[in-house]
Amino acid sequence: MAIRWPLFVRRTHKWLALVVGVQALLWTLTGFYMVVVHIDTIHGDHLVRAPASQPFDLGGLAAPSQVVAAAPGVSELRLQRFAGRPVWRAETPDGARLYDARSGAPLPDLTESQVRTQARRIYTGDGKIVSVRLLTHAPQEMQSRKPPYWQVEFEGWNRPTLYLSPQTGELISRRHALWRIFDFAWMLHIMDYDERSDVNNPLLRVATWSAFAMALTGAWLLIWSFKRRKRNKA
Amino acid sequence: MKRIRLTPLFFRRVHKWVGLILGLQFLLWALSGSVMALLDKDKVGGHGGGMSHAHPLPAGEYFNIAALPQREPVTGVILRDLGSRPVYELHSAKGVRLVDATSGELVHVDEQMARDVAAMMNDAPIRKVSVLAKANLESRDHAGAMWRVDFADAENSSAYVSLDTARFLVMRGDTWRTWDFFWMLHNMDYVNRKSFNHPLIIFVAFGALWLSGTGFYLLFKSFSRADFRWLRRKRKPVVTRSPA
């Protein structure tokens, strides 16, 4: 018996849709969210101020050799400002540390009140600080970063949260409601429900190729149905 | 005018017409998504840091930065090691100056230096070195002039090294190039391959929502009890084979 192609293709399309239909719906829904909300907004660029670049007075600085000797394994020294005064930021295998750029003395870790001041300085909004905590375990939204860090939460519908380094006070990351929704949408999009980062997982591979086959059979049906219509009219 | 009746036939028509207009992109999304899921993300690379070499700074005296000729106000200083010698990066509104941190002499990032920096990231022999006035598609995340160092390896790797700072910028290989082509099909930014928030993709994504939405609805209308008869048919023989 000859295969009746239209019927066969329609059945394939239907059954593939039954298998990947929910996921195809999720792909278009999450994809729509990701294209509509601009990625700069997702990243929270509007929540933080870029540090102003002011010229440095290079006279009277502690010799870099002094800081190099004090910070074992240091690979990079940066002259920058902390709380208005110049500091050397030393990048070492154990993380970054600050040294007073005039005396060369190491700066102690930030106190909670310094963290509050620093967070206020960085944050562009007017909302009050709701909570300040020193975290030793990474929350879900900071999976990719190694603690410890300070978590500073501000009031507001989108729950803006800044993460600051306890050693240098610099901004490690910022999170807010739209980012959290994006992260959830991304998880659904790539179907990695644990780590939300493995774009090569077998489930995704099977689902994407099934969706491709579904789309291909759909395209075939489409061309076929429009051709048939033309024939009927003629 | 005829009132629109929300019958399965109406949704089937919406499904068909949206499919006709945006179906090709839906197909391309499915295809590019499939290929990107297939390409090994470690081979694609290029995402996230941890790629650059960090050399510990040597002990000893460094050139006094206050004694350097100051052409313009310095807004930032970075002391680092190139692997062969320590250098200062002097940042100003005009750009970056690279200075030898022991002699205080200006450092020009020449071809040999670009080769040395690139060779730290890849052991394969170097095939070709060229200079770019600005980033190409492969190094689009970085600004300024740069060296491109091509390697003779299976991936046809290219390393990009900053012309201003001698910093290693990024490594790109054939797997990344394939990935990037499909990423372009996915994000529909055919010129810069970078943005996925432009009007075209928003429009098409909105249409695709209708395609998948009506399709999902039609699933409930297209399947009948008869479609699942084969499930019952399979079970029957088990029953008849029960002890007689």
Please describe what this structure looks like.
- The complex is a heterodimer of chains A (234) and B (244).
- Chain A contains 6 helices and 7 strands, in the order αααβββαββββαα.
- Chain A has helices spanning 5-36, 39-43, 64-70, 112-122, 177-190, 202-233; strands spanning 76-82, 85-92, 95-100, 129-135, 149-154, 161-164, 171-175.
- The radius of gyration of chain A is 27 Å and the shape is elongated.
- In chain A, helix 1 runs antiparallel to helix 5.
- By secondary structure, chain A is of the alpha+beta class.
- In chain A, strand 5 (149-154) and strand 6 (161-164) form a beta hairpin.
- In chain A, the strands form 2 sheets. Chain A has a 4-stranded antiparallel β-sheet. A 3-stranded antiparallel β-sheet of chain A has the order 1-2-3, covered by helices on one side.
- In chain A, 29% of the residues are buried.
- Helices cover 43% and strands 18% of the residues of chain A.
- By secondary structure, chain B is of the alpha+beta class.
- Chain B contains 6 helices and 7 strands, in the order ααβββαββββααα.
- Chain B has helices spanning 8-38, 41-44, 111-119, 174-187, 199-222, 229-240, and strands at residues 74-81, 86-92, 95-100, 126-132, 146-151, 158-162, 168-172.
- A 4-stranded antiparallel β-sheet of chain B has the order 4-5-6-7. In chain B, strands 1-2-3 form a 3-stranded antiparallel β-sheet, with no helix packed on it.
- In chain B, a hairpin with a 4-residue loop joins strand 1 (74-81) and strand 2 (86-92).
- The longest helix of chain B has 31 residues, at 8-38.
- The radius of gyration of chain B is 29 Å and the shape is elongated.
- Residues 239-244 of chain B have low confidence and may be disordered.
- Classes of the chains: A alpha+beta (234), B alpha+beta (244).
- Chains A and B meet through helix 1, helix 3, strand 1 and helix 6 of A and helix 1, strand 1 and helix 5 of B.
Number of strands of chain A: 7
**Protein chains sharing the most extensive interface:** A-B, 60 and 64 residues
Helix-residue proportion of chain B: 25-40%
Number of DSSP helical runs of chain A: 6
The overall pLDDT of chain B, averaged over residues, is 88
Pick out the low-confidence regions of chain A: none
Largest sheet composition of chain A: 4 strands, antiparallel
- Helix count of chain B equals 6
Give the topology string of chain B: H per helix, E per strand: HHEEEHEEEEHHH
Give the % helix of chain A. 40-55%
Query: What's the Cα radius of gyration of chain A?
Result: 27 Å
Total strand count of chain B, please? 7
Globally, the shape of chain B reads elongated
Q: Could you spell the SSE succession of chain A in H and E letters? A: HHHEEEHEEEEHH
Structural class by SSE content of chain B: alpha+beta
How many angstroms does the end-to-end distance of chain B come to? 67 Å
Mean pLDDT of chain A: 92
The largest beta-sheet of chain B arranges its strands as 4-5-6-7
